[in-house]
Amino acid sequence: VSSFTERPKLPDNYTQDTWQKLHEAVGAIQSSISIKYNLEELYQAVENLCSYKVSATLYKQLRQVCEDHVKAQILQFREYPFPHAQKWSCTDSLDSLLFLKKINKCWQDHCRQMIMIRSIFLFLDRTYVLQNSMLPSIWDMGLELFRNHVISDKQVQNKTIDGILLLIERERNGEAVDRSLLRSLLSMLSDLQQVYKESFEQRFLEETNCLYAAEGQRLMQEREVPEYLHHVNKRLEEEGDRVITYLDHSTQKPLIACVEKQLLGEHLSAILQKGLDNLLDENRISDLTQMYQLFSRVKGGQQILLQHWSEYIKNFGTTIVVNPEKDKDMVQELLDFKDKVDHIIEVCFQKNEKFINLMKESFETFINKRPNKPAELIAKYVDSKLRAGNKEATDEELERILDKIMIIFRFIHGKDVFEAFYKKDLAKRLLVGKSASVDAEKSMLSKLKHECGAAFTSKLEGMFKDMELSKDVMVQFKQYMQNQSDPGNIDLTVNILTMGYWPTYTPMEVHLNSEMIKLQEVFKTFYLGKHSGRKLQWQTTLGHAVLKAEFKEGKKEFQVSLFQTLVLLMFNEGDEFSFEEIKMATGVDDSELRRTLQSLACGKARVLIKNPKGKDVEDGDKFIFNGDFKHKLFRIKINQIQMKETVEEQVSTTERVFQDRQYQIDAAIVRIMKMRKTLGHNLLVSELYNQLKFPVKPGDLKKRIESLIDRDYMERDKDNPNQYHYVA
């Protein structure tokens, strides 16, 4: 075992000589002149001193030398002029910049010197200082000295911070400034611990607040909303960049919050009132996107944007719906408007659920401000799309249009009005063979079924079923006719319609010729032979025929209504008849006959000549067969002059819906009372609201309840008039 040798004693004066050397070296570093000794030797010297327990003294001596040097630095700033005025003049500003550069150089020198000093005294830092938790490291000691003797000097500190704020203000006003100088000075304040937070940040945020408060007020007056929002965005980007480039990261939150509050938060309502409607009217997608993004940054911003968005939809939508002059374009405008708001939600509002839901509520609100009419017009719009001759759409496009219509349809409360008009138009399409495509018809039906349930579409489906069954019946009838001894020369096609499924048609008694009557009887015998107990009622208003005719130019065929047929067949018996004679012979009612004659003598294909000429058919007018009739086609369709769907017709459809509603209310009341036996008025009414699919006023419900009490379905409680009992 080798024995430990005793540590040799230090030569006399070693400590003092060595410190002298180190002191010199530190002095050289502080004066920026070259060091006489090599660094390795100095580092070794520190290590030697530390191993001989002189660390404490060494640390104190080093601290003293550094402190003396830092204290001396303050003198160069003392002779610096300090402006007394609050505002800086141009020379002050220049002065201030020179001052900042000087303080920055002082700081940079200090840091560089401390790094070198620390590298020489590294052993002391790693041993003695580490073991004494109360002592700051050599670097921290340097910071502490700089803070205490340079930056804590009130004048120096104020002038530094004033100078920094001035530079930032100039940069905000659009001037180019020395950003690296700012970065260096602000990181100095950050390194000196609380100086940045307490002395700089507070003042910086106050000045920012004042600047943007004034700027917000001024620009809201001067600029249009898109420009203003663009400016706010630019300011936020600039301040964000400031944080990245020279401010401490901890300033980001309060700084951005301050800009948002003063430029946005204080002006939310004003921005929306001044500019939202305009942006939406003009479909300014990028501006709306920017508005949404900016408003989403501020507390309560989205909420207030939502409210104004909803108001806009309701106001704009109401103008589409309530103006009767716009009825013919109402549905197309609704579809276009819906497309527009959908696009805005998708692109500008990031498909935000709240905006989608509120849009739906707003649509529902405005579309029901005018009861019944939108439902009726939607039904007619669908009719125009499903009718043959709608050249504008391929099957895919048609499907897409129907999907869009269903979305609008969903918002409507009185869906039974839609059903009534839809049924009427569907009947026309089916009976006149005017449907563009069976697939599209079926597709629309399944959409309605999906939306409103099977009960809603059962009658409509019944209409299709009738048409299918009629085809089968006609195949059998054709065979039946071949076995007849005298099949006649008229080819008869009949559609058998179940009364409950189809719209109600007013039957009209007209004078058919003997051949037609005979055929009708043949069919009746055939049909009732298969289905005894059924009753057939002929609907003359819906009949049509193909007539063959001979003119000087040759043969033609006419596709005409039954009424037109009856009029034209008269001209086999003679060449000229008066209005009164035709009326007498055909039995067609007055207004219907005038329209029929108008179509034959005043339309494009004039098979008859009216005397005297004129657009309208008057009493006493004569009608003459037009032997010189010419037309480029062989088969010509003569359209009945369309009486604009009369107000009476519209009213009667709407009234039928109203009547149906009465029955449904009665049935619902009886159903509920039968189940509950006894029920208070308010509970009965709320239960009815749950069950009924159409909008209804409390007053109407009250009338129905009274009516049921009168008819002994229910009775009032003797002691409590608000209580009802079911009468079995």
From TrEMBL:
The keyword Ubl conjugation applies. The lineage of its organism: Eukaryota, Metazoa, Chordata, Craniata, Vertebrata. It comes from Himantopus himantopus (Black-winged stilt). It comes from the Eukaryota. GO terms for cellular component: Cul4A-RING E3 ubiquitin ligase complex. Keywords: Biological rhythms, DNA damage, DNA repair, Host-virus interaction, Isopeptide bond, Phosphoprotein, Ubl conjugation, Ubl conjugation pathway. Pfam families: Cullin, Cullin_AB, Cullin_Nedd8. The gene is Cul4a. This is Cullin-4A. Pathway: Protein modification; protein ubiquitination. GO terms for molecular function: ubiquitin protein ligase binding. One of its GO terms (biological process) is proteasome-mediated ubiquitin-dependent protein catabolic process. Residues 373-601 form the Cullin family profile domain. Belongs to the cullin family. The keyword Heme does not apply.
